[in-house]
Amino acid sequence: MEFGLSEEQVLLQDSVNRFLTDQVPLDEVRKIASGEKSDATIWQGLTEQGIPGLLIPEAQGGVGLGYLDTAIVAECLGHHVTPSPFLSTHSSPSSSALVVRLARSLPAPGSE
């Protein structure tokens, strides 16, 4: 019995960590926390990676991954102190589907 991450999960973890390392250095987090900068770029990038739709089936426009994959992403976001919504986008499959549709159709926060 194997208790490690699958190859796909390691790729997901690496992809999210790489994005966050490049786009959310601690200096940027401080600027966002102080109000000097918006988190629009972060939200846009997470949306492009499909993060808001991790638990939504592909047939409904989501990514169709599971709870372990979502936990991997949550760990990455926490490790990088990412100032962006996450748990609120994963409350239930039906409400999450709505969040994905809205996230794709609305401008990123602060981009107006």
Provide structural commentary.
Helix content is 54%, strand content 0%. It is globular and about 50 Å long. It is built from five helices and no strands. The chain has one domain: Butyryl-Coa Dehydrogenase, subunit A, domain 1 (Orthogonal Bundle). The mean pLDDT is 83. With 112 residues, it is an all-alpha fold. It has helices at residues 7-23, 26-34, 40-48, 67-79, 93-105.
List the helices and strands and how they pair.
Blueprint: H1 7-23, H2 26-34, H3 40-48, H4 67-79, H5 93-105
Helix pairs in contact: 1-3, 1-4
Q: Care to count the β-strands? A: 0
Residues in helices, as a percent range: 40-55%
Number of helices: 5
Number of domains: 1
At CATH level 2, the architecture is: Orthogonal Bundle
User: Which topology does CATH recognise?
Assistant: Butyryl-Coa Dehydrogenase, subunit A, domain 1
At the first level of CATH, the class is Mainly Alpha
> Average pLDDT value?
83
Q: What's the story with the biggest beta sheet? A: none
Report how far the terminal alpha carbons are from each other.
Answer: 51 Å
Radius of gyration: 14 Å
Q: By helix and strand content, what is the structural category?
A: mainly alpha
- Identify the overall geometry: globular
Q: Runs with pLDDT <50, length 5+?
A: none
Order of helix and strand elements from N to C terminus: HHHHH
CATH homologous group name:
Acyl-CoA dehydrogenase/oxidase, N-terminal domain
Which percent band covers the strand fraction? under 5%
